[in-house]
Structure formats: C-alpha cells, structure tokens
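User: Fold both of these, please.

Assistant: Here is the first one.
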Amino acid sequence: MPDESSRPPRYIVQDRLSSLQFSIPGRRNWPVVIFVGIWLVGWAAGEVTVSVIILGQLPGLSGDGLFLLFWLALWTVGGAAAIRAWLRALASKEIVSVDAETLSVKQAVAGIGRRKEYAAAYVDNLRVEPYYGSSSGQSSGHCLAFDYGGDTVRFGTNLNEAEAEQVLALIRSRFPDLTKGVEGA
C-alpha cells in the first residue's frame, strides 16, 4: 500500500504575482449522494405527475386543484433544497484567495457560491487546528483557522493535517503578517 505522504495534495494552488488562490475539493459524501439521488428520482416523478394534473385543471382550477398547486410549490422548494444538498455532496469546492489586503473564502458548486472577505489587517494568528465537524466531540480532520476580531474563522475543513500545514506554509511565505501571533512564524 503506498505511503499517504507520497500522494499529491488534493488542493490546487495558483500562485499569481500578488496573490495565492487555493481550490480545495469538498469531501464526497457518498451516502448522501446515493440516498438523495434516488430520492430525487421519486421527487421528479411527483413533480411531473402533479404538474400534469394541474395543467389539466387550469381553465377552472378549483379547491382540489388549488391544494395541489400549493402542494406543488412546497414540493418544488423541497426538491430545490435536495438538489442543492446533492450537488454540495457531489461537487463542492472551497476557493480561498489571499493577497496583501484580503483573505476570502468561497464555498462553491459549479463556480456558484457565496464569498466571504476578511480584511488582512484584522486577520490574526492564522494556524492549523483540529476540526470538529460533528457533535461527537471527535476531531474529523484538520483545518486552517484565524482570529478576526472576536470570532474564529475556519476554512479548509476538507484538508488533512499535512495538506493544511502545506497551505499554511505557502501563505506564511508570501504573507507573513497573516500569521502573526503564531509561534515560529
């Protein structure tokens, strides 16, 4: 069995003139991918069936038709949430950009997602720490973290310890002010 330290990191780094960008793939949650994928087949059947029924009643939509229309609206919202969860479990990635002025983290699926930006002047003590992603109290891996005012911001939760240390070393080499407060920085 090959040594895990010899495998390449799962993240991709783009070293630009004035910034670093890391693309960190999300963990594939195969039970969610399989279960929600099968559930979505049933969801789509319900969506199509009820849509056809409603379209057949459209000229004079009555009580039953109005109930089905309301049900379809809720069913569609639930399906959209399930599709989002399925895509996140299958194809999510975290995009971290670091330059002299900002550190930004974007959770993305197919390039679409929400970006949070943090002013580099207020980023303190960038470090690697254990990540407790479940309520069991047991570490599920490692992540990068930094203090930002009164908050602790965590990212890179899908990295193993060695990968997190590599990312930290790359950031530290280019932007040492972000790691102030870290011993040996």
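And the second sequence with its predicted structure:
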Amino acid sequence: MVAPMATALLTGSKHQTSRVGESLRVQGGDIVVANSREAIAALPSRLPERSVGAYVQFLMEADARSSWAPRVTERIETMALVAPVLAPDAAVVLVVDDPADPAHDQRVADGLRLLAEAALSSAAHAGAMVSVLHEGTPQAITGALHQGGQHGVMAPLADLGADRPYADWRTDILSLASSTDVTYFGWVNQEGCAKVGLLRGSVLSPLTVPPESVVAWGTTDPEPGARALSRALLTATLGGQPVDNGLVDLFIKDVIGSLPPSGFELSVSEVERWLRQQLGEAPSC
C-alpha cells in the first residue's frame, strides 16, 4: 500500500515537535512528525520520494556537556537522510530557538545554511529554499515556509490563527502595508514587548536580531535596544553584510529616533535611499 502524500515534515526533539506540531496547518495532506533518530532514519521507507513540500527541523535532544560540533553535524546528517522525500522545490526551515543550539551564533547559522544547501545541491532539489529561523513560534515558521516555498503547502493565511482576535491576527499574520514594497514593520504587542518583522506582500517574517536582544525605536540615544534594531535593519537591507558602529549610530540619529513609539512602517526603499546617501552606492536587499 502506497503511503499518502505528505505536505509537511517536522523533525526534532519530542519537546519541540509536540509544542509546534499541532499548531501548524497544511492543506491537502498531513504533518508527519519524526522525533527520534530511529524515526528519522525510517522516513525514506515510510514516505514516497519527493512527497514533502515543507520541512521544519528542530534540534534533537543533546548532552548539555557535549561540544557544539556534533549538534551541527547531526543536523546535516538529518538533512541528508530526509533529502530523498523532499520535493524539488521544498521549503526548508531550520529552527534554532533552543538556547543550547550553537547556531545562535550567526556565523554558525550561516555555515549551517550553506551546509544544508550543499546536502540538497543535486538536480533533484534545484528549487529547494533553505532558511534559518531564530524564532520557533508556529506563526514565524508558517511565515518562513510561505516565503520560501513554491508548493503552497501551508494553509491559506486567512485560516491561520482564526481563533485569535482580529487585531492580533492581522498584526501577526497579514501585511498592514498598503504597497507591495518590502516593508519593515514594528509594533508593541499586548504584553508591551516591541516586535519587528519584514513584510513581503501578505507574509510577515521576524527580523533577525541577536539572541536575547530587545529592540527599541523613537529615541536618538544609542542604547542597546536602538542599536540592535538599527544594526538589524541595516544588515537585512545590505543582504547580510556587516555594518560598522558609526553607521549604526548615525542611522539611530537620522531614522530610528524619528519613528513613532507606538509602531512604524519603514520601507526597504527608504532605508536603501538613506544608505545610498551615506555609502554612495545602491545596497542589495
């Protein structure tokens, strides 16, 4: 008997997969969960080839005393094991929100993404997209899968978080920007925490900031929150290129300090124009 087509695959520790698995929604199929090394090894015999359009990988349980290298190695070995069941244009999201995950270091995260892409570099996965996500909430994972995938395997955005109050649903999931331009969007949630995301059409993805960092705006004082936001916005607009402290502080003075404290919309094109004035060249986003 042929196994049913799977639209999403979730691997990692039982703690992580049970926390997220039931909250993700897919259309046209089920979410397959493998939360042990034995279950992962059995996936190629359990699922049809190229049947998985979305793959989310969490870290497996690890000895806290071990070095970081085995954890990275196991992630790549897992990627190689699941590769036969991934569709040619699968969306792959590596979630690194566990405090013990060495990929909290951006240098490790960049290397992990490159190694994962290498594991999928065959012609059979020419269209696969790999991303590293530092926030492991169902909303963030769903947004990353929508942004990276071409299968359309995730449920329509209107169905996600349907039991949430409209204002929260709209803030978390639906783009508030009226234009089609890529936009940085900042808001303060009900707990009073400042959040920033990158909006592309109707997809809101979290802005990458250093682990344990908070962000702040509406102040010209180069305090840690304003510095974290300034550096994150400039780095994202420059396509991941490093940004020196002088440029970070100047961006706080010229842009971050003038953003409304209650929330903001800042298009990438506006940041690019500011950078052109400072650098004399057009950055890449």
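The first strand starts at residue 6 and ends at 11.
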